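About this split. The held-out portion is used to measure sequence recovery: a designer receives only the structure tokens and must propose an amino acid at every position. Recovery is the fraction of positions where the proposal matches the reference. Here is one held-out target exactly as it appears in the evaluation file.
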């Protein structure tokens, strides 16, 4: 086989049609368009072990229509399921775009072969929203796999439940109390915000604050309230307001406004909670939890012991 521009030249008769995410088969109008405009077409991607086309079915059909004898190809070395993922990824990003129903069908199929992959990873492959993948994952298929871990787009495995990571983080903090939150989070496979929560709960257990309620049984901030001194917090906020690095930047001013509003709200939290309608409490609880976690993560990022080199 001759080579051209880094690709191998392969006889058209040696190539077969691979598995495709296209539910409607070939688009004959697109094949005709490619047959009339052959200049600059990229090489086909071909699975080496089977000689089946992973990406380039329309280009192959156009070549056969023109009577072309050889085509440039690049090789794909992987399994059939990996070849399908590659086909979906390439067809979602260039050439004739996949229809919405084809992208959703591809996501459902990849969920079966790559159940360990995260919703965001599958969504990035198929060109759909992560919530679409999450909805597909919730559908009963009769072949559900109970997995404890998922692999994200960065290739890292993370637990579906943070409880195992919390236990690991607890052990690390007891053995290495000087370890930074980011170091603990990385070793335990949890977020920095979760690591911060573990550290606070350990402090409660050690007697520096009253033990907090179990997760999900009541408002989490209650255990930390005794440690907050309003006068000290107000003093620190006043100091931040005078900080030029914050006062004279748009992000700094936004942060100061948000912090001031949050502290003002917390002083009236009990009164405001008592005035809320019963039907809205569940939603408010979820939103409040998300806000608290967001502030906790931010706090861990600016903590004096934060490991900024990671």
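Reference sequence for scoring:
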């Amino acid at each position: 086989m001759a080579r051209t521009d880094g690709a191998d030249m392969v006889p058209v008769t040696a190539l077969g049609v691979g598995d495709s995410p296209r539910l409607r088969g070939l688009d004959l109008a697109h094949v005709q368009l490619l047959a009339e405009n052959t200049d600059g077409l990229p090489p086909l991607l071909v699975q080496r072990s089977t000689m089946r086309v992973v990406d380039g079915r329309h280009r192959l059909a156009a070549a056969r229509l023109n009577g072309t004898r050889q085509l440039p190809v690049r090789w794909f070395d992987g399994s059939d399921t990996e070849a399908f993922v590659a086909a979906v990824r390439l067809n979602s990003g260039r050439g004739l775009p996949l229809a919405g129903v084809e992208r959703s069908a591809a996501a459902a199929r990849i969920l079966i072969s790559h159940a360990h992959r995260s919703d965001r990873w599958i969504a990035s492959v198929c060109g759909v929203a992560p919530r679409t993948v999450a909805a597909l994952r919730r559908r009963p298929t009769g072949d559900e796999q109970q997995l404890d871990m998922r692999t994200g787009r960065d290739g890292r495995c993370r637990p579906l439940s943070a409880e195992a990571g919390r236990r690991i983080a607890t052990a690390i903090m007891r053995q290495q109390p000087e370890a930074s939150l980011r170091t603990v989070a990385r070793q335990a496979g949890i977020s920095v915000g979760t690591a911060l929560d573990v550290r606070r709960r350990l402090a409660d257990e050690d007697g520096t604050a009253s033990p907090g309620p179990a997760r999900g049984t009541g408002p989490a901030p209650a255990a930390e309230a005794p440690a907050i001194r309003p006068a000290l917090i107000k003093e620190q906020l006043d100091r931040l307001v005078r900080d030029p690095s914050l006062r004279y930047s748009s992000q700094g001013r936004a942060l100061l406004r948000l912090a001031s509003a949050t502290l003002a709200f917390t002083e009236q939290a009990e009164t405001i909670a008592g005035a809320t309608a019963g039907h809205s409490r569940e939603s408010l609880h979820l939103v409040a939890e998300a806000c608290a976690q967001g502030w906790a993560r931010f706090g861990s990022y600016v903590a004096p012991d934060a490991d900024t080199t990671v």
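Annotator remark: Confidence is low (pLDDT under 50) at residues 142-149, 208-227.
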